[in-house]
Every structure is written in structure tokens, then in C-alpha cells.
Write a structure and sequence with these properties.
single chain, about 325 residues, alpha+beta, Deoxyribonuclease I, Chain A, 6-stranded mixed sheet, globular, disordered C terminus
Length: about 325
């Protein structure tokens, strides 16, 4: 794993002095050959073929106390989820900064085939005490990251990752999506300088390594999420070292063309920090405009694994 020039001693200290355990108890199911995408620059993906599946990642910015007060109501965010499903044919969603009650309500309104898995964020104090982050707007439950799929979710697991000793714990959540024949892993990486005791430590390199290690256990895996990191390009990018080499070689990113490491902006500030990677053949990629978050949803369409029978369940009309 590539290391920043200061990370040798930092990494040793961190591994022996920080919490590397998974993020608490899993709140589980509410009921898992690279090529250039054909429509990589298109305005929309259009209808999916029976042998394709569309996966999206979206930071919903639903935790209002995290500078999300002006990014739309829960109803606005649900409408965006519904549009991703109806307009882009999305059957699996990787969600970050979602409220647990909103997630449950959305799945119920979408229809009985829609299932969820949820993991809360946790604030960890100097004594090691963990407190789940609450959504402060109208008692909407806990804040966390989640999977939402038009299928039963199985083998749901939190992947152990390096996390700050003191501060906010995010993480990685994986599951198999049976009807779609894929496995997905949703990652929300730590911000740089997020450690309360050691702000100079950067955890994203180890977290990315853990994510791609999880992907390597099954060639049908799609990984993605909010990486809080720009692509590994550009002289001004001082954090390019965090990326494992297999990210853009063994795997391909939704918006990757050939050997390029760039992609269209996914954040309102003009940066790309949201990603989807897979070793499956990509057939399309779309960045969706929205006023319901400071992040734009990213949608990737891939060829369904050959051994999986096509699944064409209907989409219930939400109220």
C-alpha cells in the first residue's frame, strides 16, 4: 500500500493505538472483464436490458446538523430516490448520510420487494464510549449509511476498518443482492484530519485497502460510496498516495475512460468524491443532477453475471 512520506511511524502508532473494530451492531435487513461504458458521457442511461443491472451511490445529506439544512426535505429526498429507480432503472442503492426512519419509510413506500440494511455512525470519546449519531430534525432516528435494494439482502456484514481513536466512525457495509446476482459494498470514508487525538493521521488509505480487499473475495462485487477524496490525479492533489493501485487497474470506475483517472463532478463544490468500481463489464455511467443534496447521485450500469437468471420485478408506485 502506497504511503505518504510521514505515514510509516504514523501507521505503526495508529494500528496499535486505534480502534480497528467494526462499527457496532449491524441493524440489518428490513424485510449483495472491465470495459469502457458505451454511454459513459450520455445524458441518461435509458431502459436497462434484461442482462443488465443499475447500481447507484448517493450521499443524501439528510443529517441536517451536518450543514444539510438547505438541501431539501425528507419528501424531496424520497422523490429523488423514486426518480433514480424510475428514470435510471436503479435496483441497488448505496446511501450515505441517511436517517434510519427515512430509510424504513422509503422502503415501505417503494414496495414489498425493497429491502434495507443500515449501519449507524458513532461518536467515540477518549474513554472508548460509543454514541450513535442522531438525526436532529423531527426525531427521524439515527444517522448512518445503508443499502437499499429491490431484492433480499444476504450475507450482510460490516467490514473492519481503521477508524479514529476519538471522533466520528464511519465504515463499510457489504451484502449480496440475490435477485440482481451481485454483491455490493458501501463505503463512507473518514475526512482528512478527522482524528480527535491525532488530526495529522489520515485513515483513508487503510480504509480504501480494506474496501478493495473486500471486493477481491467475489468478482461480482460493486464497491462505491462517498470517499471524501478526489481522484488520484493532478499535481495539486496531495492525497493521491491513499489510492491502492488496483482501484483503476483490476477494477474500473463508473466514469473511467481508458487510463483516465478523472470523472465528472459529484459534489456541489465541483469535486468528484463519489465513486463506483467493479470488475464486471460496465455498460453505462450517469451523474444525476439533484437539488435534494449537496452530492449528485452516481449511477453505473453493469452486465449481470452470466450465471444469474434475469430478474424483472415490477416497481410499485409510491404514494
Amino acid at each position: 500500500m502506497q504511503k505518504h512520506k510521514e505515514t510509516g511511524w504514523r501507521s505503526i502508532r495508529r494500528r496499535f493505538g486505534s480502534t480497528a473494530a467494526a462499527l457496532g451492531l449491524l441493524t440489518s435487513v428490513a424485510c449483495t472483464s472491465a470495459q469502457a461504458p458505451a454511454s459513459i458521457a450520455g445524458a441518461g442511461l435509458g431502459p436497462a436490458k434484461p442482462d443488465e443491472v443499475s447500481v447507484a451511490t448517493w450521499n443524501m445529506c439528510a443529517v441536517r446538523q451536518w450543514s444539510c439544512e438547505r438541501t431539501g426535505s425528507p419528501a424531496d429526498k424520497f422523490r429523488q430516490l423514486r426518480d433514480l429507480i424510475g428514470d435510471s432503472g436503479v435496483r441497488v442503492l448505496l446511501l450515505q448520510e441517511v436517517c434510519s426512519d427515512d430509510l424504513s419509510s422509503s422502503a415501505l413506500r417503494l414496495g414489498p420487494e425493497w429491502q434495507t440494511a443500515f449501519e449507524p455512525y458513532a461518536d467515540v470519546d477518549a474513554a472508548g464510549g460509543r454514541t450513535a449519531v442522531q438525526c436532529t430534525d423531527g426525531g427521524r432516528g439515527r444517522a448512518g449509511f445503508a443499502l437499499l435494494a429491490a431484492s433480499r439482502l444476504t450475507d450482510v456484514e460490516v467490514i473492519p476498518t481503521e477508524q479514529p481513536t476519538v471522533g466520528l466512525h464511519r465504515g463499510i457495509l457489504c451484502a449480496r443482492v440475490q435477485a440482481q446476482g451481485v454483491r455490493v459494498c458501501n463505503a463512507h470514508l473518514s475526512l482528512r484530519e478527522s482524528g480527535g487525538q491525532h488530526p495529522e493521521w489520515d485513515f483513508r488509505d487503510d480504509q480504501l485497502s480494506s474496501l478493495f480487499a473486500a471486493a477481491s473475495t467475489d468478482e461480482r462485487t460493486v464497491v462505491g460510496g462517498d470517499f471524501n477524496s478526489p481522484p488520484p490525479v493532478g499535481k495539486a492533489n496531495t492525497s493521491a498516495w491513499i489510492w491502492p493501485s488496483e482501484a483503476y487497474t483490476t477494477y474500473r470506475e463508473c466514469d473511467q475512460k481508458g487510463t483516465s483517472r478523472t470523472g465528472r463532478p459529484t459534489h456541489s463544490d465541483g469535486a468528484k468524491i463519489d465513486y463506483l468500481f467493479t470488475a464486471l463489464p460496465r455498460t453505462g455511467c450517469e451523474v444525476v443532477s439533484t437539488k435534494a443534496s449537496d452530492h449528485r447521485p452516481l449511477v453505473m450500469r453493469v452486465s449481470r453475471p452470466a450465471e444469474t437468471a434475469p430478474a424483472t420485478p415490477g416497481i410499485s408506485t409510491p404514494s
